[in-house]
């Protein structure tokens, strides 16, 4: 008769199954709950509103944390929608709309801060960043309405969130060293967003002209 496996081996073999079962149970509980993708989207909006207020009050580190948390919620709503099957066409529309609003709200607060500091160049760069970020999203939406997939470009939503988060967390007075990265972050954000807008314009032109697709995409 074969000897039983050591307890340690049984535990190691059973752990993945136990974790998988627990994950499935949690997933089923979430799906059965009253939580909706729209509720997650609205939670992300609240987080970004809090971030904008904190920027206005010049609590930059806390603003960066709130902005990150709000942006994470923006990411989760789409995944939860697909996982739970609770997504609707209006929910997808609301998600995209709130993403644009949230980014604009936080950057508007940043522009206000630069204005009070008398940094007109940074104010102008923030305005460019807002406009170009909106155009990055608009070019994709308009392209997809024409039947062209348009996810190319450097400054995707995730990249823009990372850049602005770094700028907020390492802003002057944020309490982390002597860094002042908010203005540089805005300059980078504006430049990359403008560049990405043109990347998408040329990509759509190439696709509609029947040319070969670009080598890389984001």
TrEMBL record:
Question: Transmembrane stretches, by residue range?
Answer: 35-53, 121-138, 158-175, 181-198
Give one GO biological process term.
Answer: phospholipid biosynthetic process
Please give the superkingdom of this protein's source.
Bacteria
Q: Supply the alphabetized keyword list.
A: Membrane, Transferase, Transmembrane, Transmembrane helix
Q: Name one Pfam family in it.
A: CDP-OH_P_transf
Quick one: where's region Disordered? 1-20
User: May I have one GO cellular component term?
Assistant: membrane
Q: Which Gene3D superfamilies match?
A: 1.20.120.1760
Q: Could you state a single Gene Ontology molecular function term? A: phosphotransferase activity, for other substituted phosphate groups
Protein name per Swiss-Prot or TrEMBL: CDP-alcohol phosphatidyltransferase
Q: What organism is this sequence from?
A: Conexibacter woesei (strain DSM 14684 / CCUG 47730 / CIP 108061 / JCM 11494 / NBRC 100937 / ID131577)
